[in-house]
Write a structure and sequence with these properties.
Helix content is 83%, strand content 0%. The protein has four helices and no strands.
């Protein structure tokens, strides 16, 4: 517990920036019009694809004895993949709404 408090006190500016980024992100996403959600989802899918590749590269560089790093990397790959697939499913369903019915 003391290590966590020491880390936070040593990196207080980063903590402030993280909190500010959370508030700004919530405000920006909350004010996006509905017509822009599909392009934003496509952009988020591309970003998460990069995150998946980064997680795989980090796992490849991790020590095979470091089980925590490998487990966290595996969880990052799984969650990133679920987010990409879910984003594409939502984007596909939204684009289906704009197609003309026969």
């Amino acid at each position: 517990m003391t290590e966590l408090i020491e880390f936070i006190t040593n990196n207080l500016q980063m903590v402030y920036i993280l909190i500010l980024m959370i508030f700004v992100g919530v405000e920006i996403i909350g004010h996006v019009p509905a017509v822009l959600h599909t392009p934003l989802m496509s952009g988020a899918n591309a970003i998460h694809g990069v995150i998946i590749i980064g997680a795989i590269l980090v796992m490849m560089g991790a020590d095979p004895e470091n089980k925590l790093a490998l487990a966290l990397g595996f969880v990052a790959v799984i969650l990133g993949t679920l987010n990409v697939v879910g984003g594409f499913v939502v984007t596909d369903r939204m684009l289906e709404m704009f197609k003309k019915r026969k």
